[in-house]
Amino acid sequence: MVLVLEPESVMPSPEVTSSPEAATAPQPQGMSTLLNFQPTAKPVLHTLSILIPVYNEERYLAAVVKRVVEQPLPGGLTREIIMVNDASKDKTWDIMQQLPAIFPQVQFHLVNKTKNEGKGAAVRDAWAKASGDLLIIQDADFEYDPADYPKLLQPILDGKADAVFGSRFIGEPHRVMYFWHQVANNVLTWLSNALTNLNLTDMEVCYKVFTREVYTKIQIKSPRFGVEPELTAKVAKMRIGEGGRRKEGRRVRVYEVGVAYAGRTYEEGKKIGWKDAVSAIVQIIRFRFSD
After folding, report:
1. In what order do the strands lie in the sheet with 47-54?
2. Residue 92 to residue 20: CA distance in whole angstroms
3. What region, left, alpha or beta, does residue 87 occupy, with left being phi > 0 and alpha being psi -120 to 50 degrees?
4. Which end of the chain, N or C, is surrounded by fewer C-beta atoms within 10 Å?
5. What CA–CA distances, in Å, run from 87 to 237, 248, 276?
6. CA distance 287 to 99
7. By C-alpha distance, which of 285, 118, 110, 271 is closest to 192?
8. What are phi and psi of 138, to 5 degrees?
9. Rounded distance, CA 250 to CA 213, Å?
10. Are strands 47-54 and 134-137 parallel, antiparallel or unpaired?
11. Roughly what angle, to the nearest 10 degrees, separates helices 119-127 and 227-237?
C-alpha cells in the first residue's frame, strides 16, 4: 500500500504594508514633542576671551598669537585676546605692543606688570578684564595647540557643559617627556580628585574653558602654578543657575577632552619645578576647605 502524504497547509504570513495615508496619519498627541526632545538647550554665545599670561617668551609669543588669531572658532564666535606681561626681562613687552597693529581684526587688552608675581597672578589680572561669554587660558609657548579650541568649546556650545578641561593623557599626540613629572602629575590629579570627587585625568592641564556664569564667580588667589588646583577645586564646589534639589542651584557640568601636548625641556624654557608640585599639594587641600 502506498501512502501519499499531502503537504501541510501553510498559513500565509500576515503582510505589513504601508501607505501614503499611514505615513501622513496624525501622530498621537505629544509625540511630536517627544521626537524633537533635546536633553539640553544650546546656549547663544558670541565672544571667547583668550587669556595669555606671558613671561620671557620673546622667541615664541608672536607666532603663538598668530596661531590663536588664525584658528577658526566654531559657532560663529569672535575673540578677544588679553595678554599680561609678568615683568619679563627680555623683549616680550616690546613684541606684545606691536601685535594689535599686526592683527587689527582682533580686540586686544595688554597689561604690563613691573613686578614678577607668577602665572596665577598674571591669570588673575587677565581674568579681571575678560568680558566674553566663554573664557580659555592659553600658554604663550608651543606646548598647547590652538587647533584644539573647537573640540574644547563644543561641549559648551552643545549645551552639555559649563566647564571643559583638556587632558594630555587620553589619546592625543604628545611629546615624550620627563617620567617623574608625569608621576607628580598623576599624584596631584589623584589627590585633587579624592578631595573634589571629580574623575579628571589631568588636573594640571593649562587648557580650561569656562562659561561666563562660572568664571565670574571665581576670584583667583594663587600667585603661581597653584592656580590650576585652585580653579579645579572652586569649580567642583560651585553651584550655578536655579533649580535642582538644592536652593542654591545645580553643580557645574564638567567635561574633559583630549588635547595635543608638545612639552618643553628646561633648556627650551620650561619653568615649573618641584617647589610648584609641593605648593600644588598645599593649594589642593587649602581650596577644598576654603575659598
Report:
1. 107-113, 78-86, 47-54, 134-137, 208-211, 163-167, 254-258
2. 70
3. left
4. N
5. 33, 40, 19
6. 36
7. 285
8. -125, 125
9. 12
10. parallel
11. 50
CA distance from start to end of the chain: 101
CATH match for 47-289 among 3.30.450.40, 1.20.1530.20, 3.90.550.10, 3.40.190.10: 3.90.550.10
Beta bridge partners of 240: 250
3-state secondary structure of 165: strand
Phi, psi of 121 (to 5 degrees): -65, -40
Report helix, strand or coil for 258. strand
Q: What pLDDT digit, counting tens, does each position of 89-147 carry?
A: 999 999 999 999 999 999 999 999 999 999 999 999 999 999 999 999 999 988 999 99
CB 134 within 8 A of CB 49: yes
How far apart are the C-alpha atoms of 78 and 45, rounded to whole Å?
9
How many residues in total does the chain contain? 291
- 205 is written with which cell numbers? 592641564
- Give the pTM: 0.81
* Residue 210 identity (one-letter amino acid): F
**Residue extents of the structural domains in the chain:** 47-289
Closest CA to 283 of 244, 240, 219, 227: 227
Cβ proximity of 257 and 152 under 8 Å: yes
Identify the CA nearest to 210 among candidates 259, 280, 153, 140.
153
